[in-house]
Design a protein that fits this description.
9 helices, about 170 residues, single chain
């Protein structure tokens, strides 16, 4: 039985995968180009503005700190396409930036914290849209949003700002 487990076991070496990723054509091109890395990083920053800016407007509304007369449903319809566009830009540009320095970046504490917070932000958004936001028509006419909406908004702002901060620390953290 032990021999069967040994032969069936599949090991995944993340650093080996990072090394293979780093040696792909696009990763080498980004890493060796004089202008490509900073150009992609600039697009990454534009994606941050789109994503964090649009989600922050919604979060501030949920907290009751902005746009008190605006319907949550209408605001969500208006800002979520911008958030998704920003997320897509982030995904593509972040993937290229990571691939170009995967072996160096993967063990970086700031990078790992950033990835953990991205997962947290995604789970927070998913939970909000699957639960609290479904009841928005019932509570959005009230003077104040429910505590669950405020918690989701505050959590979102904290995570997205934390993601930006952790991202800025990546080059300085070893």
């Amino acid at each position: 039985m032990l021999g069967l487990r040994k032969t069936c076991a599949v090991t995944f070496d993340v650093l080996q995968w990072c090394l293979r990723l780093e040696n792909t054509g696009p990763a080498v091109l980004v890493r060796e180009s004089t202008w490509l890395f900073p150009a992609i990083e600039t697009l990454h920053l534009i994606g941050i503005v789109l994503l964090v800016g649009s989600t922050s407007v919604l979060d501030l509304r949920l907290l009751g700190a902005a746009l008190p007369g605006t319907s949550i449903a209408n605001l969500t319809r208006r800002v979520l396409p911008w958030a998704w566009a920003g997320f897509l830009v982030q995904l593509v540009t972040g993937g290229l930036l990571f691939a170009s320095e995967a072996v160096k970046t993967y063990p970086n504490g700031a990078f790992r914290l950033k990835m953990l917070m991205i997962v947290g932000a995604g789970l927070n958004a998913m939970m909000f849209h699957l639960t609290t936001n479904r009841r928005a028509p019932q509570w959005e006419r009230d003077r104040s949003t429910p505590i669950a909406a405020k918690i989701a908004g505050l959590t979102s702002i904290a995570l997205w700002f934390g993601i930006v901060i952790a991202g800025r620390f990546i080059p300085y953290f070893d």
